[in-house]
Amino acid sequence: MCIKKSIQTNGVPLIKFQNKARIDYFQKGKIYLKSLAYFRKREKDTNDDTVGDLFDAMVHTNEGYLVVPELGVCQELTDTLIETSFSNCFVFCMFSPKIISQKFQFSEDQKRKLLDFGDSALVITDRYAFLQRVAIALKRDGITGYHGHIKYYDETSDNVEYWASLIKNGIKDVAFWKRQKYEYQQEYRFLIEPPVTENDYYELEIGDISDISIILTAQEALNLIAFPIKSDDKSKDD
Questions:
Q1: How would you label 46-67 residue by residue, b for 16+ Cβ within 10 Å and e otherwise?
Q2: Residue 237: inside a domain, yes or no?
Q3: 113 falls within a domain
Q4: Is the terminal CB of the chain with fewer CB neighbours within 10 Å at N or C?
Q5: What is residue 75's predicted lDDT score, i.e. its pLDDT?
Q6: Is residue 102 part of a domain?
Q7: Residue 104, SS3?
């Protein structure tokens, strides 16, 4: 029987579920970002649609037309995935509930499914300090980055909000939408434009974060009760 633990966090907690070696590596300040192409290939090659996602950062349309007047092109699109300039950016993903409340607890469904990500978890106890350190590291490395909550859509029908988001915020927003079946992950994503590298990953060094994080087993984290406190510094969060 796993005993429930409670913690107080500055802002809504960010939690990373992974194997112990990766979690230790992360707490030492090394953020391991993977290419979005990796996640699409993972589902395609292994049928793993937990970590893998064939639709990740691809524009999905059920019914539409591709029109290029200059070339005389007018092509009907049916259940089509379209690659964009942001489809192969690099990402680092964490769990974070979107709605701030008096306390947060995982649902029973999340407790079952999130164990597939690894046996350990790192809980960021100061969300705002963490986001600031990431921003400083990106600026130091000359990398353009974005972060925010993933939004979820029903891929069986074309979603007005989904398309409006791409028009309003730019095509980069395609990396911040996922199919509805992933909603239990409540993902918070860090996205960077591809740096100069031949690898399908990039390591961002932000410095040791043991002062603003704790390591737990995945079971302990899933039985965690978090009590976010209010902060005056919300400008760097979405």
A1: eeeeebbbebbbbbbbeeeeee
A2: no
A3: yes
A4: N
A5: 57
A6: yes
A7: strand
* Nearest CA-CA partner of 148 in 203, 110, 92: 92
Give pLDDT, residue 238: 58
pLDDT, tens digit (0-9, with 9 covering 90-100), for 191-226: 998 776 778 889 999 999 999 999 999 999 999 888
Pick from 30, 78, 34, 85: which is nearest to 58 by CA?
A: 85
Amino acid, res. 173: D
Nearest C-alpha neighbor of 109 from the set 184, 48, 182, 181: 184
What's the domain count of the chain?
Answer: 1
List, for residues 157-204, the tens digit of each pLDDT value: 888 898 899 889 989 999 999 999 999 999 999 999 877 677 888 999
Is 234 a member of any domain? Answer: no
Q: Which domain holds residue 35?
A: 5-229
